[in-house]
């Protein structure tokens, strides 16, 4: 095999999408020629109770390439599209795919950051990362890893995206090598996968640690302490202590069990937990008020007691909680979810 063909076969394309992802991915994969000389790996956020088969069928029918769900320890080939299965992370190591049930990142499994980070650690400057439409900022940290390892960053033009948060976050925090509408990405990729590449350099140690955490090879206190400093916040998923990890201006948080959040996702998750707590409190106050009213009726022959007053006090708390829920509802739905 010639040196040029070796370079071609070693390139990887990793793609992340969320809200609006099916339409965006369908448009993108339709541009790949049948002899596309690189494997393509896709994470599209999906709920745990979906199979993802519909997306596989859509992409397989829209492209001249074969699209399949990735399997654990599967050797990958150029010219194939591998889609992360639902409720599992897809990671890349040398020559094969890992499918893991690791901790959620940015509330998602599969998540974009673990795929991007693992590819950067394994293949360095041979990785091209693409971030498409979606809420919040999953993919930003992973794209930073790709850039730090010498790879290429492509962001969908936010004006072209149905939901511009994710590509805009990459542009703001990482800086895209290419910021283009999806209709132009095929031509950009066809040129990139045929470029000459410098020698691969080993990945920075902090990226290697995070890649290992996603593989569940290690996840312990020394690992996260090597990544950042402990902060007085708790992980909303498991209740564990969090460590702050700084990626330039992007703040991230990790717990020692493996959950990870950007600051915006952590805020959204905390808001959701507050909303859940308020609903529980509202239910309990309403039940208390109903019980007090029942007791007040049963004691109607007795002199006025504090029961009626306690019922009125409960109504005050109920009104306050309802007002907070209305405000929290606006905040929560304004932040959105990937």
UniProtKB/TrEMBL annotation:
Protein name stated in the entry: protein-glutamate methylesterase
Catalytic site positions: 18, 45, 138
Listed GO MF terms: phosphorelay response regulator activity; protein-glutamate methylesterase activity
One of the record's GO cellular component terms: cytoplasm
InterPro entries per UniProt: CheB_C, Chemotax_prot-Glu_Me-esterase, Sig_transdc_resp-reg_Me-estase
Gene Ontology annotations of biological process type: chemotaxis
Region (Disordered): 294-313
Extent of the signal sequence: none
Catalytic activity: [protein]-L-glutamate 5-O-methyl ester + H2O = L-glutamyl-[protein] + methanol + H(+)
Chain ranges of the CheB-type methylesterase domain: 6-196
PROSITE patterns (alphabetical): CHEB (PS50122)
Cytoplasm keyword on record: no
Coiled coil ranges: none
Protein EC: 3.1.1.61
């Amino acid at each position: 095999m010639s040196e040029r063909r070796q370079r071609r076969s070693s390139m990887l394309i990793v793609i992340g999408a969320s809200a609006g992802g099916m339409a965006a991915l369908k448009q993108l994969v339709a541009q790949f020629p049948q002899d596309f000389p690189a494997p393509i790996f896709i994470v599209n956020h999906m709920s745990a109770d979906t199979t993802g088969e519909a997306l596989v069928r859509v992409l397989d029918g829209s492209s001249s390439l074969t699209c399949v769900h990735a399997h654990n320890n599967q050797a990958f080939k150029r010219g194939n599209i591998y889609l992360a299965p639902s409720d599992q992370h897809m990671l890349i190591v040398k020559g094969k795919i890992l499918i893991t049930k690791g901790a959620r990142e940015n509330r998602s499994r599969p998540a974009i950051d673990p795929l991007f980070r693992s590819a950067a650690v394994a293949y360095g400057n041979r990785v091209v990362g693409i971030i498409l439409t979606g809420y919040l900022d999953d993919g930003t940290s992973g794209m930073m890893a790709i850039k730090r390892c010498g790879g290429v960053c492509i962001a969908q033009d936010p004006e072209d995206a149905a939901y511009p948060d994710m590509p805009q976050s990459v542009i703001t925090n990482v800086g895209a090598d290419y910021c283009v509408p999806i209709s132009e990405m095929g031509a950009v990729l066809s040129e990139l996968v045929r470029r000459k590449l410098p020698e691969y350099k080993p990945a920075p140690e902090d990226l290697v640690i995070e890649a290992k955490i996603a593989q569940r090879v290690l996840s312990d206190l020394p690992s996260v302490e090597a990544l950042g400093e402990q902060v007085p916040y708790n992980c909303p998923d498991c209740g564990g202590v969090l460590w702050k990890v700084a990626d330039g201006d992007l703040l991230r948080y990790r717990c020692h069990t493996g959950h990870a959040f950007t600051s915006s996702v952590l805020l959204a998750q905390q808001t959701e937990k507050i909303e859940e707590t308020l609903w529980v409190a509202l239910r309990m106050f309403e039940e208390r008020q109903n019980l007090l009213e029942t007791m007040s009726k049963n004691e109607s022959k007795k002199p006025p007691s504090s029961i009626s007053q306690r019922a009125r006090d409960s109504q005050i708390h109920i009104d306050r909680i309802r007002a907070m829920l209305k405000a929290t509802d606006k905040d929560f739905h304004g932040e959105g979810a990937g």
